[in-house]
Amino acid sequence: MLTCANLNQPWNSTLPTLALLQKCRTLTDVNQIHGRLITTGFIRSQVLTTKIVLTFSPSPFTPLVDFARYVFFTYLAFRSPKQDEDPFLWNAVIKSYSHGREAQEAFIILCLMLENGVPFDKFSLSLVLKACSQLGLLKEGMQVHGLLRKLNFGSDLFLQNCLISYYLRCGFIGYARQLFDRMSMRDSVSYNSMIDGYIKRGMIDLAKELFDVMPLEKKNLITWNSMISGYTQLKDGMGLALGLFEKMPDRDLISWNSMINGFVKCGNMEDAEILFDKMPRRDVVSWANMINGYAKVGKIDLARSLFNEMSERDIVVCKAMMAGCVQNGYCGEALEIFYHLQRNCSLQPDSATLLIALSAIAQLGHVDKGLALHHYLKQKKFSLGGRLGVALIDMYSKCGSIKNAVLVFEGIKYKTVDHWNAMIGGLAIHGIGELAFKLLMDMEKLCVEPDDITYIGVMNACGHAGLVKEGLICFDIMRRVHKMVPKLQHYGCMVDILGRAGQIDVARKFIEEMPIEANDVIWRSLLSACKNHENIDVGEPAAKHLITLDSCNSSSYVLLSHMYAGLGMWNAVSSVRLMMKERNLKKIPGCSWIELEGTVHEFFVQDKSHPQVMEIYSLLDSLSTSNSEVTPYVHHG
């Protein structure tokens, strides 16, 4: 409920009315003031209504913007226009649309002005062009262009620049260049718009041509920074970028950060560090770039050192540090940063930060931490309709809680194909092939278009569950119904399905008939199936072919050795082991882990690094001894 802004001012004064309007946030608040304006007669005051339109049309609060528009169209818009009247009020309303949620309405208002003989100026037209470019309205924008030429506005430099920007935003760079070439006069904005347009489309050579012919006095920081950004996109462009950087008459933070980001992208942290140390001033982007760069090249200790060095951190830097930790396997450290963010009143985690935290939890397998984060998402009313929902389903699946994953999936009202893929992928991890296949059928019924990831997930699930027929149906639907061309991964899934089911000869024939050449992963899948089903006739040639494809991968030799051992071919086993020794190849040790009271314990084969290793081996020995002392019961019938 609103109260009077100033008790010393009577209600028949316009001042408290304007003051109270500024405090309005809801439609109810606005309606109260509107009622008072009507009862006091102030609504007929042109001075007050003009102030309302000018003050509240740019407001961030929708009820106030809507009220300003209502006042304008009801009391001000259609008075008899004077020929030389300034259209500043119309422009204020057009701007409220062109800079807001309903940009297409800006064009309609221009049409209203034309129909009612209301004068307009170049700012009216520029605002409408902005709205058209924002929505990609080609036909409407070209109509405005035609109007400009008809009314002799066409030579106005400001409007010509607006048109260039409009055509570039709509993707018509050829039209923009034609307009640019025909201009009798160009300024920095004209050149910068075209250079930026070329760079955003990767047309660096054309951008350079314009940059080189651009008069030196027209070049400003935006020009130089645009070209540096363009050069950093090129494979070997950092030398050109550095040369330009050194020639710059002035540099700002964008110049320095663009160069550092360029070096980071190509993994050149030495030069990035030199520039970082030389910077006269740094912002959070500078620090985030360096942290991200060190993390990418695996120097997480240097990234952490920089992070700790910062006196003030924002969400961007915390996000970069968290992502770096997760990339390098330091998921616990990433979560520590996240929990610090949660405790910090001034810094609140955003969606991107939450995605990194969910990824860290998924890699650690800490379902309790996942449940706590899920509760936080609910508490803060984050929507699960986008990537957060996908990450949550994935996290629960990887933490072993497929039931919670299904509950999240079923609770999302508007699911994208990514939600379906995450759920199908989770079911594949748990070997629940029947339900994964059912979800694919549900997608068909609900007209949700599957993508190549959907089919990889379903076929993986079918393979783990031994559903050969369903796997073949998936492969058939993908090609015949959705007209999708199978990728190498899809062929690999089919080989895995057939191999797991023991259909070794069919799997080999499938590989031979593939339209694309099978990679080492597919051949290794076939070899693994041969080992499991003791098929040496297919396995031995497959292993030899695999070794020629990838001679440095120890798993191929190990699979072949195990296949020979399973068939008692010990001489062949020795031969394979000797080959591994000669090539200095070692078997990667097996690994298992268990979560106990919130801590994940990891064990490798013959690993004695665990702090409680003596107690563990002692317990295993006692179990082994007690088992050997048990006398087997033999029933004498």
Automatic annotation (TrEMBL):
| Gene Ontology process terms (BP) | RNA modification
Which molecular function GO terms apply here? Answer: mRNA binding
Q: Which Gene3D superfamilies match?
A: Tetratricopeptide repeat domain
Q: Which UniProt keywords apply?
A: Repeat
Q: Which family does it belong to?
A: Belongs to the PPR family. PCMP-H subfamily.
The answer to keyword rRNA processing applying to this record is: no
InterPro entries for the chain: E2_motif (IPR046849), E_motif (IPR046848), PPR_At4g14850-like_plant (IPR046960), PPR_rpt (IPR002885), TPR-like_helical_dom_sf (IPR011990)
In residue terms, where are the PPR repeats?
A: 86-120, 187-221, 252-286, 416-450
Q: What is this protein called?
A: DYW domain-containing protein
One family from Pfam that matches here is E_motif
Species source reads Gossypium darwinii (Darwin's cotton)
